[in-house]
Amino acid sequence: MSNPLQPQNVGPPMSLERPYVLVAPNGARLDRSDHPQLPVSLDQIADVARTCFDAGARGLHLHVRDDQGRHSLDAGRYRAAITAVHSVVPDLDVQISTEAAGVFDVEAQLDCLREVQPTWASISVREIARIPQLAERVYGLCKEQGTRVQHILYDAEDAKLLEHWKANKIVRTGQVDRLLVLGRYATGQVSAPEDIDLFPLDAAPWMVCAFGSQEHICLQEAALRGGDVRVGFENSLTDPNGRHWGDNAESVAALISRIERTQT
Prior knowledge:
single chain; 264 residues; alpha/beta; TIM Barrel; 8 helices
């Protein structure tokens, strides 16, 4: 069997279809003091969605904030943000984050999914595992209401737990998509392409995000290996030389250009 996380060719770069590009423009932790173009308000998020779609992104990983700019799982804010995005870019996929970020418990994550009923959501395996008895309800709800799940995995142990839940039918049939997170949300974190090898092999669809100035280099490697990519200010504000991107759209366009140069 071929290795889905390893490049299958030897010699000149492969000519491949462009990977799916998901933009994560804000995350749960940064604000406009970190970068003046990091979107916080609904208008700012909608504007970034439009410019990133024009730059080549086909999906938006969405976080919303409360009135003080803090990370929120408020269903009303999520519904308003989804409406705002689709009013300007109706063809952009929207994935909501259920990230706890050290603030929310599993019950709040479950409530968010139930009340928003999103088309697509990212769910951290290790966060749901804080209350294992709720895992069946989380994934069952998503199956019932038609919410596509992307499992967030930080390491091989997360991947092992996901396989255990699949085997025990806690994770439902078809809930196979994975985001491999290279590194951690930590000050000064810089991911490396070889971090991909820390995850076990799996033929299921996979995507990569990476932290710090080497973000694009890591994502280029993921694309070469057949993975999809998540890019944006949630994970990195700078290019490989440490220069701050002007905005999320500039980062998206630069990543796509890098990948296309490699693939042709």
